[in-house]
Amino acid sequence: MSILSSIGRIAIQYAATRARYRSERILLSLPADLRKDIGFPEILDTRDGRRTATFSSKVI
């Protein structure tokens, strides 16, 4: 594996992460009743007591 392929892989992962967070921010900016209608899950984050949203399919 060359250095360029490693850098390319890291850049692709970075771009995917940025797109995921951007999508989450857009969805979180919607009103709560609209988020509920489209089924966007909100899960209570117990570490700091604030609500966060995730795209995971497993909701406990």
Structure, described:
This protein has helices at residues 3-29, 32-38, and strands spanning 42-45, 50-53. It has one domain (3-53). With 60 residues, the protein is an alpha+beta fold. The relative contact order is 0.12. Strands 1-2 form a two-stranded antiparallel ribbon. It is built from 2 helices and 2 strands. This is DUF1127 domain-containing protein.
Roughly what fraction of the amino acids lie in strands? 5-15%
- Poorly predicted spans: 44-48
Helical percent range?
55-70%
Helical stretch count? 2
The arrangement of helices and strands along the chain is: HHEE
Organism: Rhizobium loti
Protein name: DUF1127 domain-containing protein
Task: Give a brief description.
It is built from two helices and two strands, in the order H-H-E-E.
Can you lay out the helices and strands and say which pair or pack?
Layout (H helix, E strand, L loop, with lengths): L2 H27 L2 H7 L3 E4 L4 E4 L7
Antiparallel strand pairs: 1-2
Protein name: DUF1127 domain-containing protein
Organism: Rhizobium loti
Question: Descriptors for this entry?
Answer:
two-stranded antiparallel ribbon, alpha+beta, 2 helices, 60 residues
